[in-house]
Specification:
By secondary structure, this protein is of the alpha+beta class. The chain has 21 helices and 7 strands. The chain is globular, with a radius of gyration of 26 Å.
């Protein structure tokens, strides 16, 4: 109710401002990047609340009319013409050097702020402005693509979005079959890990007694889930995704549930890339589930390994013999996993290779290669288990040869694991994973096959 009232109030202010702008012949604004930049300059020059809100809405509306070239020109203009006020900054620097007091340091800080940051704040006052700015940053990220000329603008936008999408503003909501249809439709559309094929598939994931779905929302984007997680309640830790998503599976009585499995986490807003909510989401969902189901004693993921096969194909320094490399050619057969002998031989190579991928392999900058691993290990999870042929979907086979992993969130160890990874780059892993490293993994496999 309060959000709706506030939105209506802003819309009323904006409409009154539009009336004032029309009377002032604002319709003469050029509808290209240069005209839009002029309007931004006018917005920064200082107006009343009504006309300023309306002008902000006008800027956002005109931006949406620009084509890709116009949007890039607009972004370049924000970089070149809306930086810090150089004269004011020079004076602040001189004052600081003369008398380096706390007051002068504060003045220097504010003088160094680019004018585009205040512009973005004013644009955010428009009705629907927050969502439009998130979409605008998605465009910006798409245009950067390794280029650095727009990096300063992206730093300013992401700095402000990080403040506005601070955890304190986010609201956790459970998604179930009673959730409004427009939000459910977005859950289907945004699912990024295991595609939701239709409404019946969605219902199987959120409606049964042993299934949960939670999402974070922001008060300024009440119908837009920012990130959501799908949870399966099981008796034990699963090693494959198909049984969890099966159409004809047996529902688990809730009294038997001992494990909460986070099997899909999807970010929905590309414009919020780099602004992480996932760690907060998992921790809060764990607390929600513990309150509801105190008998739960294990919290794990069943996660994809999206970078594994790309690494196998591109890395020339893999710990492989010539015989191993020859064996990997069998992966070219799309049905290799249906042949038990071939699958066993490939397992003897790929499982130790997967252990090396997590425990030893790094990017040139020293980071873990896999983005999912960086996320969970950085949040304090333990790499618990590597699951052979856990995902037989075309996507799973293409990206990871079907391998999935479990990350275990043991609440007493989360902080310790996080510190080990953040400070020393240590991957906290179970003994079972460590034993899969080359040599030891082969011996274990031979024992299983004998």
């Amino acid at each position: 109710m309060a959000n709706a009232f506030f939105s209506d109030l802003l819309a009323t202010i904006s409409e009154r401002g539009r009336t004032l702008l029309r009377r002032g012949d604002a319709s003469g604004t050029r509808r290209d990047a240069d005209g839009l930049l002029e309007l931004c300059g006018a917005l920064l020059s200082g107006r009343g609340e009504a006309s300023g809100t309306a002008m902000a809405r006008e800027v956002l509306d005109l931006y949406r009319e620009l084509d890709a070239a116009g949007r890039r020109a607009f972004f370049e203009g924000l970089v070149h013409f809306f930086g810090p006020d150089r004269e004011r900054l020079s004076k602040a620097i001189e004052q600081w050097r003369a008398t380096p007091s706390d007051e002068d340091a504060s003045a220097l800080h504010f003088a160094s702020e680019p004018r585009r940051q205040e512009l973005i704040r004013r644009l955010n006052r428009a009705p629907g402005g927050t969502g439009d700015l998130v979409n605008m940053r998605a465009d910006l990220l798409g245009m950067m693509n390794g280029h650095t000329d727009l990096a300063a603008l992206d730093r300013d936008v992401s700095h402000l979005l990080s403040s506005w999408f601070n955890r304190g503003f986010l609201v956790l909501r459970r998604i179930d079959w009673s959730t409004p249809a427009n939000i459910l439709e977005k859950i289907i559309r945004y699912e990024a890990v295991h595609e939701i094929s239709d409404w019946d598939d969605l219902r199987r994931r959120i409606d049964p007694v042993d299934r949960r779905c939670y999402a974070f929302f922001h008060p300024a984007m009440v119908d837009e889930p920012l990130i959501f997680v799908e949870v399966a309640l099981t008796e034990t830790i699963p090693g494959a995704i198909a049984p969890l998503l099966a159409v004809d599976r047996q529902h688990l009585p809730i009294a038997k549930a001992r494990t909460a499995v986070f099997y899909s986490i999807s970010n929905t807003q590309r414009g919020l890339g780099g602004i992480s909510f996932g760690s907060f989401l998992i921790k809060q969902v764990v607390e929600e589930l513990r309150r509801e189901l105190p008998k739960l004693d294990s919290f794990v993921t069943l996660s994809p390994v999206p970078g594994f096969m790309a690494w196998v194909k591109q890395d020339k320094d893999l710990p492989l013999s010539d015989e191993d490399r020859e064996m990997l050619k069998r992966l070219d057969d799309p049905k290799w996993f249906e042949n038990p002998e071939t699958a066993a031989l490939l397992r003897s190579v790929l499982e130790p290779l997967a252990a090396h991928y997590f425990l030893r392999a790094r990017t040139p900058k020293g980071r873990l290669i896999d983005s999912v691993a960086r996320f969970h290990l950085g949040n304090g999870a333990r790499l618990e288990r590597i699951n052979w042929l856990g995902d037989l979907s075309p996507k799973g086979m293409r990206e990871s040869a079907g391998i999935m992993v479990n990350y275990l969130y043991r609440l007493d160890d989360i902080e310790k694991n996080h510190e080990a990874y953040a400070n020393d780059g240590e991957v906290v892993a179970s003994s079972a994973v460590k034993k899969l490293l080359k040599g030891e993994g082969r011996r274990l496999l031979d024992m299983r096959l004998s």
